[in-house]
Amino acid sequence: MVQHLRPGGIETLVLELARLAPAGQDTRILSLEGSAAVSRAAWPRLAETAAPLEFFAKGPGWRVGVWWALWRYLRRVRPHAVHTHHVGPLIYGGLAARLAGVPRIVHTEHDAWHLRDPRRRRLQRLILTLVRPRLVADSAQVAVAVRGHLPGWPVQVIRNGIDTTRFTPGDRAAARAALGCGSALPPAAPLIGCAARLHPVKGHRFLLEALARLPPGVALVLAGGGEEEAALRAQAQGLGLAARVHFLGRVDDMIGFYRALDLFCLPSLAEGMPLSPLEAQSCGVPVVVTEVGGAPETVCPRTGRLVPPADAAALAAALAGQLGQGGRGDPRRFVLEHGDARAMVDAYTALYE
C-alpha cells in the first residue's frame, strides 16, 4: 500500500516488489490517492505490472470513509499480509488491516524527516502501538533516525534494491543518440545526468551552479518533471548554460538514459535511500551523490564520490574529478553485491510468511 502511484522511488520499489514476487504469491498494489485512469495516463509503466491495482481516491485531509473502504476491501480479500510504505498508508492501511484481522502487517520507513515534528512523532507512536507492525527501515541511516525518534521500537534494516538483470551496461553511442537531444548534444561531449523530480529538495540548482564551473564542453541531461522546471530553466539561461542543459521531462526508458551517461549525479538536500544511484551504477556509470540520508549506502566506495549538500564548489570539484578519471573500476559489481532487488524481495517475503 502506497500513498499514490505517481513516478517516484517508493512507487518504483513497490512495482518491483510485485514484479519479482515468488511464484504463486498473489500480490495487489493499493493506492490511497488517485484513480486508475489518471495514474495510468501519468505513468505508462503501470500498464506493465501484472499485479492488480486498486485506488481509493483519497482527497486532502483526514478521510474517515477511506478507512471504512479499506476495511471492507481487506475483509473481502482476506490477505495474509499487508505491507505499508510511509506514514499515510500506515495510518490508513495499518489500522484497517489490524481491524480486519490481517495476520501479518509490515511497515517500511523510507525516511525519518516527518518524525522531527513532535506532533507527527506522537501520532506515529500511537499508530505503531495500535497496529503493532514489523517495522523496517530501508537503510541503516533511516534505522538510526527511527530508533532515535521512537526509542524502544525494534527496527529491521532491509535495503532497497534494483533489478540488476534489467539495468545493465550497453552501447553508449546508441543510447545517447536515442535521448532525443539531436545536434544540440555533440556525440563526444562529456555527459552528466540526473534523474529526479524537479523539486527544490533535489538540489538541481546547485548542480547547475556546479556545471557553470566545469569546462564548456560538458553537458547535462535532466530526467523528470516538476514544479521547479521554470525556475531551473531561468537559472540555466542566467548562467549561460541554456545550450548545455537538456530538460527531458518524463523518461520512460531509464535504462537507455543511464547508458548514455559518462557520469550520474544526485545533488539532493535530503533523501531516504534513493534507487537512481544504484540503477546508474548497475549500468556501469559512476556517480557523485550528496551525503544525505541513506544515499551514501548506495555509492560504490571505489568508483563513486560523496559531497556535502548545497555546496556547488565541492560538487563541481567532484564532478570534474570523476570526469577526469575515465574508466576507474566497475561500479556494477558493488550493486550486484549490495543492491540487488532479489535479496530485498527475499527478506520481505520472509517477513510476510
UniProtKB/TrEMBL annotation:
InterPro entries referenced in this protein's UniProt entry, alphabetically: Glyco_trans_4-like_N
Sequence intervals crossing the membrane: none
Q: Which UniProt keywords apply?
A: Glycosyltransferase, Transferase
Residues annotated as domain Glycosyltransferase subfamily 4-like N-terminal: 7-166
State the Gene Ontology terms under molecular function. glycosyltransferase activity
PANTHER family the UniProt entry points to = D-INOSITOL 3-PHOSPHATE GLYCOSYLTRANSFERASE, GLYCOSYLTRANSFERASE
> What name goes with this protein?
Glycosyl transferase group 1
- What is the organism of origin for this protein? Candidatus Thiodictyon syntrophicum
